[in-house]
Design a protein that fits this description.
Blueprint lengths: L3 H4 L2 E4 L2 H7 L8 H12 L4 E6 H16 L6 H15 L3 E2 L1
């Protein structure tokens, strides 16, 4: 039998900083974060990624603002949409 402590799932909340880095995976300074999240997602290690709705909202709002100012491309928003969809498809969105 498993002990109760062995069955606990640790929830990792993604904040806007991590989400922003995941939306720009090709930037060299974001690679460690992208690799870390990829490792968590691909390994059954007792962690569950959670995406708070407020983080999604805040980053989406910021991207829209930066797109209007032509400081980022629309691909940033597209990647955020893909990331939210991927996380939601495995039940990791906390709403």
């Amino acid at each position: 039998m498993y002990r109760t402590s062995e069955l606990k799932i640790k929830k990792l909340l993604l904040d806007t900083g991590i989400l922003g880095q995941l939306c720009h995976p090709r930037k060299s300074h974001n690679k460690p974060v992208v690799d870390w999240v990829t490792k968590i997602v691909t390994q059954a290690n007792g962690f569950q990624l959670c995406l708070p709705e407020i983080a999604d909202y805040e980053l989406r709002r910021k991207f829209i603002h930066l797109i209007k100012k032509q400081q980022v491309d629309e691909i940033s928003l597209t990647r955020l949409n893909q990331l939210v969809k991927a996380i939601a498809s495995v039940g990791w969105v906390e709403r």
